[in-house]
Amino acid sequence: MANRRTLKKGIQLVTSELITESYISFLMLKKLDKNSFDAVIEKIANINNDFLGRVNHPNGTKEPKLIKSYYQKVIADFNKEVAQIIETLNK
Q1: Is the confidence at residue 4, as pLDDT, over 90?
Q2: Whole-angstrom Cα distance, residue 19 to residue 89?
Q3: What is the spatial distance between Cα 20 and Cα 23, in angstroms, rounded to a whole number?
Q4: Ramachandran angles phi, psi of 63, nearest 5°
Q5: Which residues of 54-74 are buried (b: 16+ CB within 10 A; e: fewer)?
Q6: Contact predicate 15/55, CB 8 Å
Q7: φ, ψ of residue 44 in degrees (nearest 5)
Q8: Which of 1, 75, 81 is nearest to 45 (CA)?
Q9: Could you read off the pLDDT of 22-68 as tens digits, one per residue?
Q10: Would you say 59 and 66 are in contact if contact means Cβ atoms under 8 Å apart?
Q11: CA 77 from centroid of its chain's CA atoms
């Protein structure tokens, strides 16, 4: 991990791309109905807010090993959430 700014930009980039894919699935491909589209967009927004908050406020320790493991867990959790959203969009 280079720094928090890069991580936050990456989170925002991925979530904005997911929203774009959701709009394409809803408007052009007609894969999603209105209710599922709204649910997916709300979930993506919640993921964005949750993970940006987690990046901004680590667990408060000053020990580098703990902070590194904390951010690795944040990245792993984010990747898992993104995979679930992609799976929902592909259905």
Answers
A1: no
A2: 10
A3: 5
A4: -80, 120
A5: bbeeeeeeeeeeeeeebbeeb
A6: no
A7: -65, -40
A8: 81
A9: 999 888 878 788 998 999 999 999 999 999 999 988 876 788 888 88
A10: yes
A11: 9
